[in-house]
Amino acid sequence: MTKAKRLRALPSVDIVLRDEKVLALRDIHTLAQITLWVRAAVQECREHILQHSEAFDAPLTDWIIDRVLGQSKADHGQRLQTVINATGVVLHTNLGRSPMSDQAIAAAVRASCYTNVELNLESGRRSKRGERLMTLLAQLTGAEDALVVNNCAAATVLVLQAIAAGREVIVSRGQLVEIGGGFRLPDVFRAAGVTLREVGTTNRTYLRDYEDAVNESTGAVIRVHRSNFHLSGFVTEPTIDELVQMERPESVAVIDDLGSGSMIDLSPYGLQEPNVLDSIQSGVDLSLFSGDKLFGGPQSGILVGKKQWIETLRRSPIMRAMRVDKLTLAALEATTEIHLAGNALTELPTLRMITTSAEVVRKRCESLLKQIQHQAAVEIAACESQVGGGSIPGSILPSYGLRITGYPPHHVAHQMRNGECAIQTRVTDESVMVDLRTVADHEVTDLAKGINAALENTQPSANTEIAPE
């Protein structure tokens, strides 16, 4: 068939839209979106005909429909949806880090309607946004006042810009970290309009290094927690107490960027992380930490500290650009109430996962294994989980999971990710590990269905292996 004949054989957009398979997509996609995919597929087919002399293996209409169905699958993979986290990484950045508590979710749902976000119902007058939340955060941490922005990086930029713009900020060279997305702390300093004053060396910084660096141009001293790595060996640096107590002008604030926002002592569980309460008790001017991660709430940046500095931040022109919405305020308020009630370990999913014993996880594995149909390919195996999310670097949590062998692992993982309920696992060249530390009890049944379906749709042969994604 000549190119001209093949071009004339191209189906119209309307014909493709009336196909049974394409019509079925209307259950999950809008007609406008499907039409765009069909037009793009027809155009792609036309260009292929013009550029290549060989004929299509399949009829043109079928080729176009396959392209449209492929686009639908790709779109489904990008659509925000619930995912069962079977990776064992508690604060999985790609999965949204900290899952919220039931109370926080319910509060966010309530706040999705008209909400008294800036209205005092008792007086009928306008109130400050999130006023009650700020009071609760101050009560929880022992600080004089509090403020909330959209993430911890925003909190850092706000502090630097509002209290030290045009001046120097002293920081240990060993704390000049790169955070997620390739953003480096020196770049953040420059964006905030402050001059970075490095002191000490990568592995050893002394109090005298800070003291010698303070001058008339100093705006602040900052300690930055190395959230995603740790130094060991021949290392030293001053404590936050020493930085607070060192001699300096009153105009020079001491800032403690804590990162993860741990409110409880995790050392009984073999984990070491700076504690917000300890930071405030040291007398620091400002402490910054994440509202998600170890605090267990929605993504946000929390600032607590002395009232004079919080008020300076609150009046900053860029504060409005960083403020959070009513849903975040509601969820964070509910999370803070859980901390205040002393129920963080039992009611916040993140802390519950971190502190659950390996034996409890093993029993969860036993319950899951009973629901697996292809048990010959599945076994309970000891493994290691991680906190993740830039929290407690190097942490290892003894855990258990189901190891799936005898099937192409990347194909099994692909099937589980794209099943009726999306499941993310750990994959090696030989097996799929389903770590149950990060799987809630109510997810076990859906997890079993996903594993069964994935194994049912995968041949136990290397011939079905697909390329890792």
CATH fold title of the largest domain: Aspartate Aminotransferase, domain 2
The share of residues in extended strands comes to: 5-15%
Sheet of most strands:
7 strands, mixed
CATH class of the largest domain: Alpha Beta
Written overview of the protein:
The chain has three domains: 3-78, no CATH class; 83-95 and 351-464, Aspartate Aminotransferase, domain 1; 102-347, Type I PLP-dependent aspartate aminotransferase-like (Major domain) (Aspartate Aminotransferase, domain 2, 3-Layer(aba) Sandwich), CATH 3.40.640. The two termini are 37 Å apart. The strands form three sheets. Strands 2-8-7-6-5-3-4 form a seven-stranded mixed sheet, sandwiched between helices. The longest helix has 21 residues, at 31-51. The chain has 469 residues and is of the alpha/beta class. The chain contains 20 helices and 13 strands. Strand 6, helix 12 and strand 7 form a beta-alpha-beta unit.
Short structural description:
The protein contains 20 helices and 13 strands.
List keywords for this structure.
alpha/beta; 469 residues; Aspartate Aminotransferase, domain 2; seven-stranded mixed beta sheet; 20 helices; Aspartate Aminotransferase, domain 1
